[in-house]
Design a protein that fits this description.
The complex is a heterodimer of chains A (714) and B (75). With 714 residues, chain A is α/β, with parallel strands linked by helices. In chain A, 59% of the residues lie in helices and 6% in strands. Chain A has 30 helices and nine strands. The chains are: A alpha/beta (714), B mainly beta (75).
């Protein structure tokens, strides 16, 4: 986490359990002052924003992923633990920690907060979701809570109603100006003499060898004692920085082993020690008794009642299928009209530019290469908006957790995990955020398998290719009287990718030998109406990303390609085949001929390695250079392309299908593999993916094309 | 008996864990401690995870994991 986004001298940190409204608070605090986009993980792992304080100064705030404990269970939690423990004895530490707490789930939320309080950094406990509890019916007043926790402050707010944000900002400023570092020497809760003397060797190690302040040394001694078996790898990563060389690490593991033996001899339940002590302390603070506990348990929340239908054994899966159907319906049919609007805007803009610029090479480049190429991709904005909108709604409302719950058993059979569903569905929009989202899967093997198959989920960059081929070659007719043939073909392509992905998951999980147990421990968050501003924001960021990528990559590729296709200009004749592009295309043609592709498709395959959607703009550029009349649509050009030798159309429905099948499988997005490299920490897996995907693309297209010809479809 | 033996709506007190409980303490950190009371909600479709209420919130666990939590039914 260290390498990316650097922070200024003074900054604060935002932490908390998942589902506490942390992101909403981050957005409210920073407003439009975010220095970086929060598109998860493309360029930044750290989300940094800036808060305007009441004294007109700004302070940077670092947003950490949600976490339940300093003892990590998944990769994203490990990043949080590493970050937090790196603050100890470091110059780069926050002046203040905001610990976000869901007030309707106080006890469990305070567990992580109690670990943060050990750090010796002032903590403001932010009680969010005050709107959820009736009549300010807190079990304890904020003032009392502040005193009992010895927190810097306790501030009740409601991110939903935007209440208390100014007060929080005031308090942040106050704490920064009056730093109040608690000098507590010990943990705030009672530990029996037996426990204390048993873990004392670890305490001494942390205090003396690692210079931890005493309370943190006790806290960490307690934390690492609480497991069966030795310190594990993730623990090693946490402490394994410059303060802990190999020898010290060896010493620590030895002490740890002895402490555990010692505790076991006293028949202490190792696993339960830290949670028991902390929860007992918290129960005392929030006035919990067994009676109040049972009363809380008896209470049926609205979400529980809603779930009687939504996660019902029979109805639940059908509702899920219905929602999937709705999403695909929106992407494939509702977006047709707005797509036409975008298309006509782009066309008119191109014509306008053509009118105002003098006829010149540069005009051709701008109109044919840039506007044509970028426009061919901008058309897909409506579909991306619909797709991302639905995915965000499903996630923010809490429904995705229900799908993980309902489908976990099926996912296990496929070698995946219930929590693979969110990443896989995100993959329909883009593989990169999908791969980032696998960080929440708590078993490495299942996480790896999810990443390996994820790029087969047809992402939005493939849509332009599918749409072009379908528009050109699939007739708009009815199949079985009800289904539109064009729509059906699109669904078939999505289906092909998804089903192959799931099939390969089974294969890969049998084949990859990684030990380690897989668990599924998931909080079922309450249903919440998604915040409009949060949904809007995420859709906006995704579209911005898409337009930026399309803009930059297509601009560069189009310009290069236009040059390659236009030169050398041999004695006035405009034969594109003798251009540089033509020569390159002709060179690779023999390899792709068996798939039904000619040199033009070959060139587009080459450029599509920059990004899949570039394929469309490449074809547009080639045809625009070839024929100087510009008002013919690309789909018509493909249809009317005549092979000069055979006098027959160059492309057919079969070619179109073969091209689409190739794009379903082909490994064409280099950014995806760069992210997989970073997430798996080795080139082995990205290379494996490129290899299997390319092989699959070639073989499947080959089967489709040659099979089609055999059955007389050519 | 373990958690999986509970019917929908039944309350139970956690009394302990089987020896082969996973090596991490996340279940306990989520509040599933000896002495805690839970209410069984339901099992997911296809023999999937179970859902229970603990403290103020709802938690789901795979049956393989929940089988390791020993409970006593509360009447």
């Amino acid at each position: 986490m260290k390498s990316s986004q650097s922070l200024s001298k003074e900054w604060i940190a935002l932490t908390g359990n998942p589902n506490t409204g942390k992101t909403a608070i981050f957005n409210l605090l920073t407003g439009l002052n975010q220095k970086v986009s929060n598109y998860p993980g493309i360029t930044v792992e750290r989300k940094v924003g800036e808060i305007h304080l009441p004294n007109k100064k700004n302070i940077q705030i670092l947003d950490l992923p949600g976490s339940y404990s300093l003892t990590p269970k998944s990769y994203d939690e490990q990043l949080v633990s590493e970050e937090i423990l790196s603050w100890v004895n470091s110059d780069e530490k926050p002046s203040l920690i905001l610990s976000i707490v869901d007030v309707s789930n106080l006890t469990r939320n305070l567990y992580f907060t109690s670990q943060l309080l050990d750090l010796g950094i002032p903590v403001i406990v932010v009680l969010n979701m005050m709107d959820q509890i009736q009549g300010n019916n807190l079990p304890i007043s904020p003032d009392q809570l502040k005193k009992n926790l010895s927190a810097a402050a306790v501030i009740p707010i409601s991110a939903l109603k935007k209440k208390g944000i100014d007060k929080l900002k005031d308090n942040i400023l106050y704490q920064l100006e009056n730093p109040n570092i608690s000098e507590q020497e010990d943990l705030p809760f009672e530990m029996t003499g037996i426990h204390r003397s048993a873990i004392r060797p670890l305490f001494l190690f942390f205090k003396d060898k690692m210079d931890f302040p005493p309370r943190l040394a006790w806290g960490q001694a307690l934390r690492v004692s609480c497991r069966k078996g030795g310190l594990n790898i993730s623990e090693l990563d946490i402490y394994n920085d410059k303060t802990l060389d190999k020898e010290k690490w060896k010493e620590l593991t030895e002490i740890h082993y002895q402490v555990q033996q010692n505790l076991k001899d006293k028949s202490v339940d190792l696993l339960a020690l830290e949670p028991q002590l902390r929860y007992r302390w918290i129960a005392g603070i929030v006035n919990k008794t067994e009676e109040t506990e049972v009363a809380e348990l008896r209470y049926e929340t609205r979400s529980e009642r809603v779930d009687r239908v939504i996660t019902h054994k029979v109805a639940g899966p059908f509702i899920f299928i219905g929602i999937l159907y709705l999403i695909f319906q929106s992407v494939f049919s509702w977006s047709v009209l707005p797509m036409d609007w975008v298309n006509s805007i782009v066309e008119q803009f191109g014509n306008w530019v053509r009118l105002i610029l003098p006829p010149h090479l540069i005009r051709d480049l701008i109109v044919e290469g840039v506007i044509g190429g970028v426009g061919a991709v901008l058309v897909f904005i409506p579909q991306i908006i619909f797709l991302v909108f639905f995915l965000v709604i499903l996630e923010d409302s809490g429904y995705m957790a229900r799908t993980a719950f309902m489908l976990d058993r099926i996912m296990i059979k496929l070698g995946l995990h219930g929590k693979s569903i969110l990443p896989l569905m995100t993959g329909y929009a883009c593989a990169i955020p999908g791969i980032m989202a696998t960080r929440t899967i708590d078993s490495w093997k299942e996480r790896l398998v999810t990443m390996l198959i994820l790029p087969l989920m047809s992402c939005s960059a493939r849509l332009p290719v599918y749409a072009l081929m379908i528009g050109a070659f699939v007739p708009s007719a009815k199949v079985f009287g009800i289904f539109d043939a064009q729509g059906m073909m699109l669904v078939v392509m999505y289906f092909l990718g998804t089903v192959t992905a799931l099939f390969l998951a089974v294969l890969f999980s049998r084949w990859i030998k990684i030990e380690g147990n897989s668990t599924f421990i998931m909080e079922m968050p309450p249903y919440r109406v998604p915040l409009f501003r949060s949904v809007f924001r995420q859709v906006y960021l995704r579209v911005k990303q898409f337009v930026n990528d399309a803009g930059k990559i297509i601009l560069v590729v189009s310009v290069i390609l236009w040059a390659l296709a236009s030169f050398p200009k041999t004695d006035g004749t405009q034969d594109i085949k003798s251009s540089y592009a033509g020569k390159i295309g002709k060179t690779i043609e023999p390899v792709i001929r068996p798939l039904g592709f000619d040199w033009k498709i070959g060139i587009s395959l080459l450029t599509s390695f920059a990004a899949r959607e570039v394929m469309v703009s490449t074809l547009a550029t080639i045809y625009n250079v070839e024929a100087d009349d510009d008002l013919i649509k690309l789909t018509d050009r493909l249809k009317k392309d005549i092979n000069l030798e055979t006098k027959e159309p160059t492309y057919s429905l079969l070619t179109g299908i073969s091209i689409m099948v190739f794009f379903v499988f082909a490994a064409q997005c280099m950014a995806t593999f760069a992210v997989v490299r970073r997430e798996t920490n080795t080139w082995k897996w990205p290379f494996f993916m490129i290899f299997y995907m390319t092989g699959l693309a070639y073989i499947m297209s080959f089967i489709v094309y040659q099979g089609g010809i055999y059955f007389g479809m050519g | 008996m373990n958690i999986n033996h509970l019917h929908s709506g039944e309350f139970a007190v956690i009394t302990g864990f089987t020896e082969d409980i996973n090596t991490d303490s996340r279940l306990l950190e989520m509040g599933l401690l000896p002495g805690s009371v839970i209410r069984m909600i339901k099992q997911a479709p296809f023999g999937g995870p179970i859902e229970l209420k603990i403290k103020d919130y709802y938690l789901s666990l795979r049956v393989e994991d929940s089988a390791k939590i020993i409970v006593k039914k509360k009447t």
